[in-house]
Design goal:
The protein is α/β, with parallel strands linked by helices. The protein has a single domain, classed as SPOUT methyltransferase, trefoil knot domain (Alpha/beta knot). The protein contains 5 helices and 5 strands, in the order βαβαβαβαβα. Helix 1 links the parallel strand 1 and strand 2. The longest helix is centred in the C-terminal third of the chain and has 19 residues.
């Protein structure tokens, strides 16, 4: 299973990119997967937040393919602990999902259409984080999940 983190907004600053790549590199010995961050351009065509959400949704819908399994990150989503994340990833691998897409929506969220087509909706926290930091948190959590699945000592319960 390949994993793509789709994120609306600007590219990572160098220190964030270093951290993301650090965790992606640590995963490689334990999983033959491709990990990638896909930047979705933030719409600047309108001052209207709803219009911008719609433009971002159009871009996402064009990019989404049949083999993608879309999980939306949203503050209203289901909160999972690290072992539950690992279990979810294992279940997706068992289902032979080709590409897991974890979507970090724009600053004003995503449209109802994107919410409806998402297979699952997860929340990282009740706190709000900058998008770049969420990418780093996701990279770490994906590594943590693989360490749990491979019985590595990285995660201590």
């Amino acid at each position: 299973m390949n994993i793509e983190i789709w994120s609306v907004g600007k590219e990572n600053e160098q220190h964030i990119e270093v951290g993301v790549l650090h965790y992606f590199k640590k995963i490689k010995p334990y999983a033959a997967i491709q990990l990638e961050i896909i930047q979705i351009p933030k719409s600047k065509l309108s001052q209207d937040a709803e219009k911008n959400k719609q433009l971002e949704a159009e871009y996402i819908l064009k990019k989404l393919q049949a083999h993608h399994y879309l999980i939306l990150l949203d503050e209203t989503g289901k909160k999972l602990n690290s072992p539950q994340w690992a279990k979810q990833l294992q279940q997706l691998m068992n289902q032979r999902v080709k590409t897991l897409v974890i979507l970090i929506g724009g600053a004003y969220g995503v449209t109802d259409e994107i919410k409806k087509i998402s297979k699952q909706c997860w929340s990282l926290s009740d706190l709000v984080f900058p998008h770049q930091l969420v990418r780093l948190l996701l990279a770490e959590q994906i590594y943590r999940s693989y360490s749990i699945l491979n019985n590595l000592p990285y995660h201590h319960e």
